[in-house]
TrEMBL record:
UniProt keyword annotation of Protein biosynthesis present: no
Protein name from the UniProt record: P-type ATPase C-terminal domain-containing protein
Superkingdom classification of source: Eukaryota
UniProt keyword terms in alphabetical order: Magnesium, Membrane, Metal-binding, Transmembrane, Transmembrane helix
Organism from which the protein derives: Verticillium longisporum
Length: 108
């Protein structure tokens, strides 16, 4: 299959490119609709782009990892570690960062 260029044809590349554009448009539109008025914090300030970007990164990561899981035909232990593990590491990082960051005068 690889010798016959079935995987690396221009048509396949364009299909993947259009699929990526489609997913990015869907994620952007839903993110924009959900965060349209921005998040109002307890002190009356708005959360801003940092909060929006962090909240949108989880669905982006889930989309990429889900697509990687769907196109994987043979799951090995490395796939099982890497694909769900990446999402788990993200959630652990967010929990730790959300706890530690307010204790450090890192950002306003």
């Amino acid at each position: 299959m690889g010798q016959q260029n079935q995987f690396f044809r221009m048509k396949v590349f364009i299909e993947w490119l259009l699929n990526a554009v489609y997913h990015s448009i869907i994620l952007y539109v839903f993110g924009e609709l959900i965060w349209h008025g921005d998040l109002i914090l307890e002190n009356g300030q708005i959360a801003g782009h940092w909060m929006w970007g962090t909240a949108l990164y989880a669905p982006v990561l889930l989309t990429v990892l889900g697509k990687a899981g769907l196109v994987t035909s043979n799951w090995t232990k490395y796939h099982v570690i890497a694909i769900p593990g990446s999402m788990a590491i993200w959630w652990i990082f967010i929990a730790v960062y959300g706890t530690v960051a307010p204790m450090i005068p890192f950002s306003p």
